[in-house]
Amino acid sequence: MHVRSGLPPWEPVRRRSSRNARARVALLAGVVLLAALVAALLRRGDGPAPATETVPTPPAETGSGDGASIPDPFAYTEDREDDFVARASQGAAHILYARSPGGALATAERVARWRPQVERAAAQARVDPDMVEALVFLESAGREDAMASDTEGAVGLTQILAETGQSLLGMHVDVPRSRRLTRRIGRTAEHGRNARAAALVRERRAADERYDPVKALAGTARYLTIAQEELGRDDLAFVSYHMGIGNLQSVLALYGDEQASYARVYFDSTPDHHADVQRKLASFGDDSSTYLWRLGAARAIMRLFRTDRAALERQQELQTAKNSAEEVLHPLDETERFADPAALRKAYEEAGIRGFPNDPAVTGLARDARMGELAERVGAEPGLYRGLRPEALAMAMYIGAQVRHYSGRQAPLAVTSTVRDEAYQAALVRRNREATRNYSLHTTGWAFDVARTYATQRQALAFQFVLDRLQILDEIAWVREPGAIHVTAAGGNATLLPLLERLG
Predict the structure, then answer these.
(1) How far apart, in Å, are the Cα atoms of 35 and each of 43, 277, 330?
(2) Domain 23-43+73-170+211-298 belongs to what topology?
């Protein structure tokens, strides 16, 4: 089944189906992008047997027995699976809030209209109706006439391909007639002939059952039933709705356990543990690998819609305030900011900010020499603007250690900016038109920037993996800026603080 998000900014891959009961699902595969490149660049040999269970130590400390190694709090273990799944639903939420047509609240209102039909379809497939409802949220944003490209492509409430509907799901789909009716509906609506447009919509539903919400949901239920039979697990069935059954079976075969939970497959695969699985997931290039987590995020939105709309509106406000979820991590009205150099100096004195070292051998990070270059304009010394909250500094060190480990390179990432005060931020705005005039997370000490210059493509890919994994675990928010990756660390997590002991 070809399954597309109905939200325009997402670009999923194309899938096909076959007429043969077994062979048809094998053809449900996505386009593989850059697989050979990623495989060549990230291949690291055998690597350690488990996923990185300790945070990698600097080369000088390896084997020194000085206690510099600490457990990796983000390495998968089976007893933490439920926690990882819950985190992933939060970490994947930003794109839903940012790109749902009309916003998450408006989308939830549209989706909620179909709840009775959703429950019938879920009962047919014997799956959680909340997950089917989340699927409708992701695929069409609750719009029964959603069309990804044209009538041969993915259309309807659950975004079904014409060929899939006909060959796999037994739906009546007359593509030429559906296309003609779609054009006529558009022209009629433009001229305000609403009654005639409504009649044409009914005619199109008869010609193309994908546009009939009840029949589309019934087709989705049939797909999920087929996927359950092939894959044996509900979570895998939902993953396959976007990834394709054939693609997912190839991932499971690489992992070596076709009955493993998707959470285990996803979180237990890194560039040096089940590396072929990690490369395969990365190769799809269409968010297939995170589809289950986005379903979880959509389910959470729908629950808030029913139980606490004020909280949903607040989340919408925070999630869309910036190009990442950084204000969700540190809301403006709840987060301490540094007004001027005096306030920032006091934070250093009270250990609320810790100096950012220029010690690449230990941190895997190089401090840009220009950091704090505008200090004189606000009557301060440059060193004042070379620091972070302890938890943010520890997160930066974790990222540096992981990227160095996965890329096999000793060349450090370059950190170009750390803490600022509001006076410094105002000076920066006058010089740099790209600097925000509003709430900057740099003025809180939770954010830092990493230059988008890399020693090798392999290092860039390793950095991308680490960013994505930490974001999906809701530990950071990040966004690409013209010259840097802007990273905001979450607060309240002290598990990485022992890394600061490496600094002496």
Answers:
(1) 12, 11, 37
(2) Lysozyme (1.10.530)
